[in-house]
Every structure is written in C-alpha cells, then in structure tokens.
Write a structure and sequence with these properties.
- The chain starts with a helix and ends with a helix.
- The chain has five helices and no strands.
- The relative contact order is 0.13.
- It is globular.
- Helices cover about 80% and strands about 0% of the residues.
- The chain is mainly alpha-helical and about 130 residues long.
C-alpha cells in the first residue's frame, strides 16, 4: 500500500491535515516581526500583495477540498477563509513591527475568490471530460 492510498483511506488526515498545516504556516508567518524587503517600494508592495493572495488562495482551496460534498462548500470556504484573514490581521496587531491593515483583507479576499473560481472551473471541466 502506498502512502497516498493509506491517506485516502484515512479521510480525516487526507482532507484536514493539509488545511491545518497551511493555517499553521500562515499563523507562523504573521507572527514574524519583519521580512527581508527589496529596495524598490513598488516591488515590496507587489510582493506583499502577491503573498497575501497566494497564501489565502491556497487556504480557500484547502477549505473547499476539506468540505467537499458539503452543500455550498465554495461559499463556506470563502467565508471561513475571510474569517481566518480577519483573525490573522487581528493577530498581527499584537506582533511588534507588524500592523493590522484592512487593505490586506481585500487582497486576501481577492486571492481566495480567484483561487475558488479556478477550483470551480477545474472541477467543472474535469466533470465534463
């Protein structure tokens, strides 16, 4: 039996462990007081926006994956991703050198929405083939 087969037999681990690991990674990153930054401020802004969109896009996909088979899984995945984003910003307000920025929530939501849109398109396309 391969590791993938074993994990698929243990659905709780297969579906929820990646989500919990990713949420832990997001929490760890938001607890860091500072990150190395490029010298150009526009590049720093672009990297920060991209990081938010990527992290919360992946989080949203992991949520919808874990909720598969649930009614309105896409909607629920988006909501819990945004709730986690809100909690993440709140958490950052207590980290020295970090601030809570409401604009980050916009980037988190945009990343989640785009990722879930791609997820839905991919699932639709795969169901049609």
């Amino acid at each position: 039996m391969t590791a993938k087969q074993w994990l698929r037999q243990h659905r709780l681990l297969y579906l929820w462990l990646p989500l919990l690991v990713w949420m832990s990674l997001v929490f760890f990153l938001s607890a860091q007081p500072d990150f190395p930054r490029p010298k150009a401020s526009w590049l720093e802004d672009l990297m920060g926006i991209g990081a938010h969109m990527f992290l919360f896009g992946v989080l949203a996909v992991l949520w919808v994956r874990a909720l598969q088979g649930q009614r309105r899984a896409l909607f629920i995945a988006f909501l819990v991703t945004m709730l986690y984003a809100l909690l993440d910003e709140f958490h950052q307000s207590f980290v020295p050198g970090r601030t809570a920025d409401p604009l980050d929530l916009v980037y988190d939501g945009l990343g989640a929405a785009i990722a879930l849109g791609f997820w839905a398109l991919l699932r639709s396309w795969l169901a049609g083939n």
